[in-house]
C-alpha cells in the first residue's frame, strides 16, 4: 500500500513519533484545524514549517504505531481533509502531491517510477509549485463557465465570480473548444501590495501575506473592492484521453490564451533524466527570490501520457508526479520592536527587530518594513506575531501581522516627527521618507568615522573642522575631502594657512592607506575593523569585493548568510562613493601579505600563498586569541592587531582564561598583570616584532625561534 503517503513517510523517517496516543490524537486535531483554516480563507493557525513538521510527526507515529491511526488520517486524504467541500463535483479527482525534500529522495522516487513502468520514463517536466490555491476552470465552446476550488478533491466550491478576475484566466479562449483547465490562483508580490492598499482603504484589516491574501480574496462573498488575482495553469483535461505530451498540451493551452507555469518567468524545462531534473530544480530554487511571486517548491511530472496511464494514482496523489518542497520561506515570529534607520542619503526607514527565527537555515533577527506608509497600511505593531519572508538572497521582509494574536495593550508605532539623527525636517512627499538635509544629514558622522584613527587615520580632521567643511557645503561624502585645497580651507573661519596646509597634506597622504582601512572608513553595516581586514585580505582588491556574490562573501570567516546579504546590499549603495574615491586616487587594494609560496608550503586559508605555516594557530588549526598591550616597536596599536591577524591569530581587547597569548610592550598596564595572574603565556613585544619580520621573510626557523 503506502504508495499514497510515500512523501510523508519519507519525511517521517526524520520526525519523532508521539509517545502517547493522546498526543497523537491531539496533533491530528491540530493538523485538521490548521488545514481547515488554510484552505478556507486568509487566517492561518501556524506557519508552513510548523505545520509540515507536525504532519511529519503524525506520519512518523502512524508508521510506528499503525494501531493508533485515526480514520481519514490527514496523511491519507487530499489537503489533509481541510478543503471546504462544495457542490461542484470534479470531472476527475483533484489530488494532492507526494513530497520529497532532498535529492536522494527524488532519485528514489524516480527509481520507483521506473520500476512501476518497467522502463525509464520518457521525460519529465519541472514546474514551479505556485503558492496559491488549486482551482478547476471549465470552458465550454471557448467560454469560461465555471471555476471551483479543490475542496476534498472530489467536489469543491463555486468561486466563478471572483476567479473571473484572475489575470491569465481569460473569459474567452482563442478557439471555441471545450475543456477543463486546472491551475493555481495566487497573488503576485505586486498584487499583494495593491490588494492591501485597497483593503485598508476600505477599512478592512490587511492580509498577512500573499497566499492568505489570494485565499481570502478568492472566497470573499461580498467584495467592496476588487483585489487583483493571477492564475497559472498546470494541467488540462479534455473529454478524450490525452495523446500528446503534457508539455505540448500546456504550450497549446498558452496559445489558446491561458497563462501557464511554462509561460511564466520560471519556465517549465523538459528533462530527459533525473540528473537533468535535479539541475532544473536547482535553477528554479536559485531564482526563487526574483520571480515576483511565491513558490514553495518544484513539481516534477512524467511528460508522456502513456507513462502517466501506466503509473496511475492512489486515492491521495498521482504516482507520476511529485513535489520537491523547498524550505519554507515564510515564518511567524514576534516583532520585538521597530527601529528607525537613516541611510547614507538621508532615507528614513522602519526596521523590524525580531525574536530570532530560523528561515531556510538562517537565523533572522531583523527585517525590512519598507516604509512608513506601508507600516500603517499593513497595520503592524510592536508586540505582534508577524509573518517574515526571506526568499533567496533578498533582505527579509515583514509581510503582515497575525491580527488574532495581537496583545490587548498594543499600540500603533509612532513614526518620527523630525529626523532622529539631525532633528531636521522630514520630506514625506515620497513613499520613502527622507531627511531634508539628504546626504548632509549623516555627513558629520560618516566623515568623522572615515577620518578616525582606526579608519583612514587623517590627522587634523576633527569634529570642528568637519562641521566647518560640511556647513560650507564643501564636503558631503568622504571623496569630497580629496578635492579640498589649501586656499579654500585657509579661507574658512578660524583656519590659518599653516593648519590648512597640514590638513590637506594629511588628507592626501591617506590615499595610500590599505583597502582594509578604506573599508572600515566607509562604515559598511555589519562589518567592523577586523571584518574589514578579513574582507580586504580575502578579496585583495575593491573590484574583487564589489564583484563578489553573496555566496563568495560567505567564504570569508565569520560571514554568514544574513551578514553576506547586508554587505552585498551595502556595497551596492556605496558603489558611487567608492568610484569617486578611486577616481581621486585612493588606494583600492590590500598590500601584498606574506612572501610568495615556497614549494610544499601550505596555502593560507584566504587563498594567498604563504611560505611559512601561520604561527598564531592552535594545533587544531583555529586562530589563537591574542591580546596586544603596550607598544610594539615599529607598529601602531592598529598595526599590532593587524599583525596578529596576519600571523593567523585573532586579536582581542581583553585578557581572560581563554586568551592564548599576550604581547606585552612598553606602557603595558593591568592587562599584563592579569595575564600573569591567570598564567596566560606572555610574549615580549620585541619578540613579537621579530616573529613578524621572520614570518614576512619566509624564515621558518626564525619564526620558531621567536616563539620558542
Ligand atoms: N500553515 C498551515 O496551517 C497549513 C495548513 C495546510 C497546508 N499548508 C501547506 O500546504 C502544503 C500542502 O498543501 P497543498 O495544497 O499545497 O499541496 P498538496 O500536497 O495537496 O499538493 C498539490 C497542490 O499543489 C499545487 N500546485 C502548485 N503548483 C503546481 C503545479 N505546477 N503542478 C501541480 N500542482 C501544483 C496545487 O494546488 C495542488 O493542488 C503543505 O506543505 C503546507 O506547507 C499549510
Ligand atoms: Zn537628518
TrEMBL record:
Residue numbers binding Zn(2+): 419, 422, 441
SMART domains assigned to the protein according to its UniProt record, in alphabetical order: BRCT, LIGANc
Keyword Endoplasmic reticulum annotated: no
Pfam family, one: HHH_2
Entry-linked InterPro entries: BRCT_dom, BRCT_dom_sf, DisA/LigA_HHH, DNA_ligase, DNA_ligase_AS, DNA_ligase_CS, DNAligase_adenylation, DNAligase_N
EC number in record: 6.5.1.2
GO MF annotations in UniProt: DNA ligase (NAD+) activity; metal ion binding
GO BP annotations listed: DNA repair; DNA replication
Highest taxon, organism lineage: Bacteria
Cofactor(s), by name: Mg(2+); Mn(2+)
Catalytic reaction(s) noted: NAD(+) + (deoxyribonucleotide)n-3'-hydroxyl + 5'-phospho-(deoxyribonucleotide)m = (deoxyribonucleotide)n+m + AMP + beta-nicotinamide D-nucleotide
UniProt keyword terms in alphabetical order: DNA damage, DNA repair, DNA replication, Ligase, Magnesium, Manganese, Metal-binding, NAD, Zinc
Cellular compartments per GO CC: cytosol
Catalytic class of the enzyme: ligase
Residues at the catalytic site: 129 (n6-amp-lysine intermediate)
Positions contributing to NAD(+) binding: 48-52, 96-97, 127, 150, 184, 301, 325
Domain BRCT: 624-682
HAMAP family attached to this UniProt entry: DNA_ligase_A
Family that this chain belongs to: Belongs to the NAD-dependent DNA ligase family. LigA subfamily.
Function: DNA ligase that catalyzes the formation of phosphodiester linkages between 5'-phosphoryl and 3'-hydroxyl groups in double-stranded DNA using NAD as a coenzyme and as the energy source for the reaction. It is essential for DNA replication and repair of damaged DNA.
Protein name: DNA ligase
Provenance organism: Dactylosporangium aurantiacum
Amino acid at each position: 500500500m503506502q504508495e499514497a503517503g510515500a512523501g510523508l513517510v519519507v519525511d517521517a523517517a526524520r520526525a519523532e513519533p508521539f509517545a502517547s496516543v493522546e498526543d497523537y490524537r491531539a496533533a491530528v486535531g491540530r493538523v485538521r484545524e490548521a488545514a481547515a483554516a488554510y484552505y478556507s480563507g486568509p487566517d492561518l493557525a501556524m506557519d508552513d514549517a510548523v505545520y509540515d513538521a507536525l504532519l511529519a510527526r503524525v506520519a512518523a507515529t502512524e508508521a510506528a504505531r499503525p494501531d493508533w491511526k485515526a480514520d481519514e488520517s490527514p496523511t491519507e486524504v487530499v489537503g489533509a481533509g481541510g478543503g471546504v467541500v462544495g457542490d461542484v463535483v470534479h470531472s476527475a479527482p483533484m489530488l494532492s502531491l507526494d513530497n520529497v525534500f532532498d535529492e536522494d529522495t527524488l532519485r528514489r522516487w524516480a527509481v520507483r517510477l521506473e520500476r512501476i513502468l518497467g522502463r525509464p520514463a520518457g521525460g519529465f517536466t519541472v514546474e514551479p509549485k505556485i503558492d496559491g490555491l488549486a482551482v478547476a476552470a471549465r470552458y465550454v465552446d471557448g467560454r469560461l463557465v465555471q471555476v471551483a476550488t479543490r475542496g476534498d478533491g472530489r467536489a469543491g466550491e463555486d468561486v466563478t465570480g471572483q476567479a473571473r478576475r484572475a489575470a491569465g484566466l481569460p473569459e474567452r479562449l482563442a478557439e471555441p473548444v471545450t475543456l477543463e483547465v486546472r491551475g493555481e490562483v495566487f497573488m503576485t508580490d505586486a498584487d499583494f501590495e495593491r490588494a492591501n492598499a485597497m483593503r485598508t482603504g476600505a477599512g478592512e484589516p490587511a492580509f498577512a501575506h500573499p497566499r492568505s491574501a489570494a485565499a481570502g480574496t478568492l472566497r470573499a462573498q461580498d467584495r467592496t473592492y476588487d483585489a487583483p488575482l493571477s492564475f497559472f495553469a498546470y494541467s488540462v483535461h479534455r473529454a478524450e484521453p490525452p495523446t500528446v505530451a503534457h508539455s505540448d498540451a500546456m504550450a497549446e493551452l498558452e496559445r489558446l490564451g491561458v497563462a501557464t507555469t511554462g509561460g511564466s518567468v520560471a519556465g517549465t524545462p523538459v528533462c530527459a533524466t533525473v540528473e537533468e531534473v535535479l539541475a532544473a530544480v536547482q535553477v528554479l530554487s536559485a531564482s526563487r527570490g526574483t520571480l515576483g511571486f511565491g513558490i514553495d517548491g518544484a513539481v516534477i511530472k512524467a511528460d508522456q501520457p502513456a507513462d502517466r496511464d501506466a503509473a496511475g494514482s492512489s486515492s491521495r496523489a498521482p504516482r507520476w508526479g511529485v513535489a520537491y518542497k523547498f524550505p519554507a520561506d515564510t515564518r511567524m515570529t514576534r516583532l520585538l520592536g521597530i527601529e528607525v534607520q537613516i541611510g547614507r542619503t538621508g532615507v528614513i526607514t522602519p526596521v523590524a527587530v525580531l525574536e530570532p527565527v530560523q528561515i531556510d537555515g538562517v537565523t533572522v533577527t531583523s527585517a525590512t518594513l519598507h516604509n512608513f506608509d506601508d507600516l500603517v497600511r499593513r497595520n503592524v505593531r510592536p508586540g505582534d506575531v508577524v509573518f517574515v519572508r526571506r526568499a533567496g538572497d533578498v533582505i527579509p521582509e515583514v509581510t503582515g501581522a497575525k491580527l488574532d494574536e495581537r496583545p490587548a495593550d498594543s499600540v500603533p508605532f509612532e513614526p518620527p516627527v523630525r529626523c532622529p539623527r539631525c532633528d531636521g525636517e522630514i520630506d514625506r512627499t515620497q513613499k520613502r521618507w527622507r531627511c531634508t538635509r539628504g546626504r548632509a544629514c549623516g555627513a558629520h558622522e560618516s566623515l568623522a568615522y572615515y577620518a578616525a584613527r582606526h579608519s583612514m587615520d587623517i590627522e587634523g580632521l576633527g569634529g570642528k573642522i568637519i562641521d566647518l567643511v560640511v556647513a560650507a557645503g564643501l564636503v558631503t561624502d568622504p571623496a569630497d575631502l580629496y578635492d579640498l585645497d589649501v586656499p579654500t580651507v585657509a579661507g574658512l573661519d578660524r583656519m590659518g594657512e599653516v593648519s590648512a596646509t597640514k590638513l590637506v597634506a594629511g588628507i592626501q597622504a591617506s590615499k595610500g592607506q590599505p583597502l582594509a582601512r578604506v573599508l572600515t572608513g566607509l562604515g559598511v553595516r555589519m562589518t567592523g575593523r577586523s571584518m574589514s581586514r578579513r574582507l580586504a585580505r580575502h578579496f585583495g582588491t575593491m573590484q574583487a569585493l564589489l564583484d563578489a556574490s553573496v555566496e563568495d562573501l560567505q567564504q570569508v570567516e565569520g560571514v554568514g548568510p544574513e551578514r553576506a546579504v547586508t554587505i552585498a546590499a551595502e556595497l551596492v549603495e556605496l558603489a558611487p562613493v567608492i568610484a569617486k574615491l578611486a577616481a581621486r586616487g585612493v588606494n583600492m587594494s590590500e598590500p601584498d601579505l606574506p612572501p610568495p609560496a615556497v614549494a610544499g608550503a601550505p596555502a593560507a586559508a584566504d587563498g594567498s600563498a604563504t611560505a611559512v605555516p601561520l604561527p598564531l594557530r592552535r594545533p587544531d588549526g583555529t586562530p589563537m586569541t591574542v591580546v596586544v598591550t603596550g607598544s610594539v616597536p615599529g607598529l601602531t596599536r592598529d598595526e599590532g592587531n593587524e599583525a596578529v591577524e596576519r600571523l593567523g591569530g585573532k586579536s582581542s581587547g581583553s585578557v581572560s582564561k581563554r586568551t592564548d597569548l599576550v604581547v606585552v610592550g612598553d606602557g603595558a598596564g593591568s592587562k599584563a598583570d592579569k595575564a600573569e595572574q591567570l598564567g596566560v603565556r606572555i610574549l615580549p613585544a620585541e619578540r613579537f616584532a621579530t616573529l613578524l619580520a621572520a614570518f614576512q621573510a619566509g624564515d621558518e626557523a626564525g619564526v620558531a625561534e621567536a616563539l620558542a
